[in-house]
Write a structure and sequence with these properties.
single chain; 242 residues; Spore Coat Polysaccharide Biosynthesis Protein SpsA, Chain A; 7-stranded mixed beta sheet; two-stranded antiparallel ribbon; 6 helices; 11 strands; 29% helix
């Protein structure tokens, strides 16, 4: 990895963390899902470009596996806004590494820090702006979400229905998820010290009794988990470019 001894004390804009160290076992492909192509461009590059296009974003912390041999092929990787660091075994470990890096390099406490999935390339400008507007009003913790429309069922290990889940006031948590840097850093530190496992920043923040507010997305913002999801991303790109 490049030498990442940087002075971030003068950062005035927002910082995005993109955890991209995962292997994507459920994707069932030798090539990690973040490097699968849509319109001839890797998913990860589509995602990075979302934030390179926003003037609010000053730095992008790309967190990748130490044995990743693909990231150097990205055409955007030489952009001076991008910082590359080593990730961990799980998403939680990768985000923790990024927050520790930002702390060690003196990122100001009040800096807005967003975390966004590497394989969620369809974030719209309108939804990004809606999230940032909510943050600018109160400087709290926010996340993009979508209303749950399907019936929800809790299953046992044999896939038998145990009970139905009430879907009123239930949402799917999307990314970006956003909080002031020091709030997010303290929440992750407390979560790790307690030995708790989380799947997103909302989990860390609520474990630390931080109030987190949902911002309901207007546009599709899917995460690529299975091969079929690539077709949905391709469809969304096509619809937005017509």
């Amino acid at each position: 990895m490049p030498d990442n001894n940087l002075d971030l004390s003068n950062v005035n804009g927002s910082v995005v963390i993109i955890p991209a160290a995962g292997k994507g076992a459920r994707f069932e492909n030798d090539l990690a899902k973040q490097y699968q192509l849509v319109d001839g461009v890797p998913l990860l590059e589509h995602t990075i470009n979302l934030f390179l296009q926003h003037q609010d974003i000053e730095k992008i912390v790309l967190v990748i596996s130490s044995d990743d041999g693909e990231y150097q092929k990205l055409t955007c990787i030489e952009n001076k806004s991008i910082i590359i660091i080593d990730g961990g075994e799980e998403r939680q470990d990768s985000v923790s590494n990024a927050l520790r890096f930002l702390y060690d390099n003196e990122l100001p406490d009040e800096t807005p820090v967003l975390v966004h999935d590497a394989v969620r390339p369809c974030l719209s400008r309108a939804d990004f702006n809606k999230l940032m507007t909510a943050y600018s009003d109160k400087k709290g913790a926010y996340f993009l979400a979508e209303i749950v429309s399907n019936s929800l069922k809790k299953l046992d290990q044999d896939l038998k229905v145990v009970f139905s889940v009430e879907r009123e006031n239930v949402v799917n948590a999307l990314t970006p998820q956003l909080a002031p840097f020091i709030t997010l850093k303290h929440a992750y530190s407390a979560t790790n010290i307690a030995g708790l496992k989380i799947t997103d920043e909302v989990g860390a923040l609520t474990n630390s009794d931080v109030e987190v507010t949902a911002v309901i997305a207007s546009d599709l913002n899917p995460k690529v988990t299975y091969p079929r999801d690539l077709e949905l991303v391709q469809h969304i790109f096509k619809q937005r470019n017509t």
